[in-house]
Queue: 2 jobs
Job 1
Amino acid sequence: MRQLAWAGVLILSLMGAFVVSIWLGSVHLTPSEVFAALTTGGDPVARQIVVELRAPRAALAVVVGGGLALAGAVFQALLRNPLAEPYILGISGGAATGAVLALALGLVASHSWALPAASFVGALLAIVLVLRVALAADDRVDVRVLLLAGVVVGAFFGACISFILSVSDARTVRGAVLWMMGSLAGADWSTVGTVTLYTVPAAAVLAGLARPLNLMAIGEETAGYLGTNVEGVKRTAYVVASLLTAAGVAATGVIGFVGLIVPHGVRLVTGSDYRTLLPLSFLAGAVFLTLADVVARTILSPTEVPIGVITAFVGVPLFLVLLRRSLGSAGR
Amino acid sequence: MSGDPNALEAVDLTVRYHGTDRPALDRVSMVVPRGSFYAVLGPNGSGKSTLLRALLGMVPLMTGETRVSGRSVSEWRRRALAREVGVVSQAESVAFPLTVRELVGMGRYPYLGPLQPETSADREAIRRAMERCDVWTLGHRFVSTLSGGELQRARVARALAQEPRALVLDEPTASLDIRHEMEILELLRSSADGGMTIFLITHHLDLAARFADRLLLLDRGRVAAEGEPRQVLQASTLQQVYQWPVTVDDDPTTRVLRVTPQSRRYRS
């Protein structure tokens, strides 16, 4: 029941965040102008700003934020580690490389349905590399080795992007910078539609794996003894969580730490049962990224701060706290 | 007898781990009859835990077969197997904060669909298991705050909540004081008397002799002795397996077999 109450609180917060996101921006609008734009029409310029710029941007923050938070929670169960997260594991970097490469080669037009597919290939490559490196040292994934693997793989994909840029034209370079820093500025309704198309089924599959993920968090052998097809669950969860990450990265570029901050906060409030953790992380991730985007747009208005900067400023201190705790308990 | 097949069986079992020259199990055969209390003994590295994993289909076999309730373990679906056999493995660590009630509740996962909530029958099974293991009052405690004894009792409760026909345990009392150790062993004995099959790996020769119906003594992956406690626990056999002098006699107060390691240094 407490979980349901929190779901209610988060849904209300999300509606609030959405309204704030549509209301605030470099062009000042009064609440009544926003209301008029959303309903009867009102001033055509205000209507343009609200319906074609701010609303899809807020909607994109909702699906991408929710998806990244959900992916983070899933990686944490699979790797039995609260520090696992798409950005830290280098998966976002792989996804960005896939997207930049597809664009540079002219394989896809900007924001078509195929762009997430290209990102997905990059993300899968990244997760395979990270697991290879991390498991090369030991069958049990050590925190330090895992983080190192993520850093190394992330650096590799950063180099790949730099290489692609050095041989590309100016238009691609401009696009690629967006992918590396993360931004919701390119949002339009077709992007929102594409990302949603990937995110909703992926989120549904992962929600259905909540019980096996609970078991994976206490150990693969025990999970097997309690009736889980461990290899099947691992394969499905890694692939689908990578897809979820890729869909977000293809639309907004690399936005780090959402998958770290949000599940951690949800765990503190309602515990670690994945049956509640997954849906609540999705909602909380949506709220978090929507508000982070509001801050990114308004704090130095009219200049826009990259949203990845905002999430990193929140995420890095939390990461350090969690890292200390992980290493402390590992030493005991 | 054609009726109920044996709970657990190993036939001519050989297991060799990657990169080792000696097999972990070498042509081991054993039978655990339904409703019996079966204890597995042997020095460190003699293959006890490997036997457990092989019985549950967790390691590839080089030769032989293991059967659960008469059916080859490879034919069992994992979920169905979890309803048949509950396992308390040697150790597990909880990666995230988890309450005792949540931990024990996982014992019902083999019965529940992906999104299906616990039914009243599930809650009843969980309550019964927690009461039997004396962890009912710890339900809201976080697993990370439990003492060693409490954690082991909670893990046994989770296995009991599976309502299995057989319970398989790998040194469940290894780090426990005598009271908590005796509590768990008496719980297992009464479960066996109630018809549940118990397969227990342990280092305690005396306690195995006292509680178990049959013993299996492993030595470097081979069966050194198998049978009733008095047949298995003979001084000459134990001395050879453990490479240490022992005497075996009857404890005057409990009237059960007593194995006493001798001192090498002061031996005449």
Job 2
Amino acid sequence: MRELIEGAALVLGDDVNTDILQPSRYFSLEARRRVAGVLAGQRERGTLAGIVILAGRNFGVGSSRESVARGMIEAGVAAIAAASVSRIFLRNAVNRGLPIAAGLDRAACATIATGDRVALDLRAQRVICTSRSVSAAVDPLDPYLAAVLHAGGLLPYLESVCDTSTSP
Amino acid sequence: MLTEILKRHDAGPAAGAYRWYAPDLALLPEYALALMEDDIRRRGGIALSADRLLIAADHFAPPATIERAAMLRMVQDLCATMGWEPRLFEGICHQLLTEDARTLPGTLIIGSDSHTVTAGALGCFAAGFGSTDVYGALITGKIALRAPRLIRIVIAGSLPPGVMGKDVILELFRRCGAEKLNGAGIEFIDETRSRICQSDRFAICNLIAECGAEAALFLPDDVTEAFLAERDGNAPPLPGIAEESYDEEIVIDAEALEPLVALPGSPFRVAALRAYEGLALHQVVLGSCAAGRLEDFAVAAAILDGRRVAPGLKAIAIPASAKVYLAALKAGYIATLVAAGVCIGNPSCGPCGAIDKGVLAPGERCAATLNRNYEGRMGAPDAEIYLVNAAAAAAAMATGKLTDPRKLL
């Protein structure tokens, strides 16, 4: 996994819940349907490929259905940084290999607008927007979550640390 | 107690603040199992034995679209191959978990649905996850968790009439906001004189999913013991409760509570129900894993006995499980509700999650006993959902408006 993820910012508010991120009727085993549902309720959805989501408190609150994180990855969402991330969504994103950071200093990045070029630097733990002269801090991921993300998700991580080959 | 349960299930260090823990039981609703189907088939076997699984078809129960029917078919075929026995349309998986003799104080339960935490009301460490986390546990027999900072919540006083578990948890949300509870371990201690019934304890733990807490439980006591004795025919000795050091203590005085409402958009937008009395409704739903238990039906039947559903109102009641349904039939509650004009749905998630019958049209306003009222949760994004307790739902069925249930008791 890359440590520096660049893309166009999509600025969202507080409490962006899973029903907004992907309404439940888009729960599907088909990637095409999951992608169609990402932010389907938002009026100004725009393109999702290569975007870096910047959000407020309690991002991803709500359902555990993993079709949300999977759909966001399949839609091309590059990374997420939020003031705080709800427990299950954080695990789902990391488990599927979607770069995510909590603890975003919202005050420091208040001037960033949707469409601005931004970068999430996981190593330096910052969100950077050169055109707005912004460098906002994010929290470091716990070493476990960082290791899972670095491996590309939970399944490759488990293969590297556990014996997952034995059948019962 | 949460820390003690983790210690008893410890399976070694993972990385950082996380350690591996071996769960006693994994809860798998059909939709989440569908996401793991190809991985499980490819492997051909998993580490957790069938007696450690509880699989339920409750979201697509029965399926309303071809796509969902195909997913359920796939899951049923997988179960047949693996020798697993899914519980078909017997109720919401979280309710089935509370009715299951394996759900005991001190157990570690994981589930691939956020509301798994409901079972914490029996003194378990019960937590919800996405499909990949649970799949990881199925193939390795363990899951990585972080021992949470602990918040102790003492409920004191006595619950006044018309006030239920839903109001206790909404009061906690009103005071704390979502931020403070995310990632915490919450332990409820019932010090009320009236005792909080097991059904209300399930309602309280159920809504904990909305604040992102790691897990929440009620410290087992006489109420737990009586519930287990009735459920299992015998009550196992309650596990000794180790002294925990809490980061914080919050006291909720039940005496001071009144029926509350969560306003459309978030369970954290809490207000006194009486401040919104008279707001006209298009629909009222009693059900979901947050309510829909026998005690909820008892309260609703008491209010609707001899009354009629308001003209034009869509009134729906859904028992949380087949067991609840049968008990409510025997007790006459279902007959009372049907006579009043309530439509009875089959045990399932129903319109919660906009999955099944009872979804809302654009612009409609609904009062419901559910746990979520985010935009679009029950259908149209601009439909309004007001979260209330079962008594308030029944009162609203009778009047067609948001109503303080204390007036109809």
